[in-house]
């Protein structure tokens, strides 16, 4: 995930100062042998303000009110009241003694029993009623939603504040505060506020959110920051069996499978807002799994959740995140309806999980109000989407925010806007921001122009030798209605310049009607992908990898021109029609694309051979990506990294004679990818590609099964195949990959601390070639088609040093083919949560 690189900038900063809360306390809960007691309840006496100690028994608690005592409880230990002699109390050591026999309720310690546990009886009633609680009780609902997202630097001492890095930015230290969850000092660096009108229909299973106001400061206008925020804080329902955060599936404490991964303890019962509720504490049965610790209050008649607090355990197999803390509060609309009114989530991002490591808080607060029910909207209402930017939404006056903020900004939040706007005028800060922006986007930003992508600068192949590539794009802002991109490349062995240029113009913002066109003259490894597009500036890693396994000389000189028009007919459904013209000829003396224009015969034993292909082609394609989330309204949008299904269908028509084109044919290609989250077992990705060409075509237009002769994993290729090892005009492939997310290694004691993750997969392809296409082949390349299904399988280990993955793949059959790779090792780099 490239957007995570942007957080390196945040982690560079962090600051400390004194807090403004009235009562603060931190410490550790121990037993009589000085061993930490994890998951103990710590509350201010006489209040509902509390927290659960972490795995090491440590806690931090803060309140704007004044309290004079703590109440500490834990299963199997006597309750203890701790007096607070002053407002700020740090480093308490609280020792609990073993409990005497209890007659009122059965309380369990350690791994709780799955039998005769009153907490589990209550949990089962929650399962029975979960689809009858809250918004599910109504056919339709409406409400207002206010969302505030904030990023803060944390855990920086005074020595760090004096670092020369912050010269000229010292004024920001006037805005530090202290977290009421962790007790760490922090400095806000980004804030975004949004107001929505929300409509839902439980019968149609549709939800629509209309943005009515947005206000942002700190990295203003940065699309990648916004898309990263949206991906981090995707919506979730606490009643669901699994909750998705950071592209990972956590088992909910209210899940039907929770009994297998959580311990539950019935701790207390009391009135909460005039409703009698039970208090249940939960904590993980095993380390390294994606689970939470915390407690919830549940009503005794509706079995609806009144309040829940939970945090991710430190041992959970997740990178770059030290803590995740969630609070949800529900209010009683009437005697039987509990509605979510407040949702708070805080994440602590850091390079490591050490207690004193510096990091970044990401906080989201969501509030709901003005609920209305059973006001039906036509189905068409939910299908209509706003695809263009309404600038008024981003320019609301102060009066709008005074009226529509559900809760006032505190003193520190109110000063963030001015402070951050000032910070962005500081030269040193802009230099740091630009550096990290380059790492995140791959482009160097200038006024109205971006240079890059810098990661494509160097390459190597047997024809060009060392290859140098430079390029750029116009960039006036994230919502540009048009964009021009271009590059040029030079090979130091063939001493030739190559180039590519393309342009896009969105002529209709509402329906996203986009006209595009371009031209590219370059060297390419054709057949590096089965499902092809006419992307003029697409980069082929197969022809520009610095290191390869075996020869990569089967390269082609391509001159491609194309024009197209596309429209987003409905949300995430795109229709495109286009025309392209290309010429293809071999770029290497050791590789041929020759074909017969006249077959050999007794009268002409050698036939007539042609080396170059000239081809005009018209195409129409349909692309549908349900549940895809995008950021921005310009001609190019950023994707939120949430998984979504992807359907693609392309019909192509070879136009013989048009611009002296050589062949007439029809081609159909289908692509389908489906991610599936299988709860605690991780995530599966299934990809199917199939296609067929009707007509007679030469090697340059055939469907080549994509091999991979690099040392790196390339998506939708076969790791044990060489280039051109299989050639087809009709094919079907199936790829299955599964990520266990470290769940298997977590159960092996000596591997838990490594936090490695397990991957397995299978790839298979079946294909054929017509007799007519075999007959015109004059390239000297033997046509081999996988008429008997070719397959290979792989296993991998990821999260090595948090950034590296190794894949081991084995060839399943066709072992006797020339130069067959029976085993391959591929690697890949990436930032993963």
UniProtKB/TrEMBL annotation:
The keyword Hydrolase applies. SUPFAM superfamilies: Carboxypeptidase regulatory domain-like. GO terms for molecular function: carboxypeptidase activity. Residues 1-21 form the signal peptide. Pfam families: CarbopepD_reg_2, DUF5686. Keywords: Carboxypeptidase, Hydrolase, Protease, Signal. The keyword Transmembrane does not apply. InterPro entries: CarboxyPept-like_regulatory, DUF5686. This is DUF5686 and carboxypeptidase regulatory-like domain-containing protein.
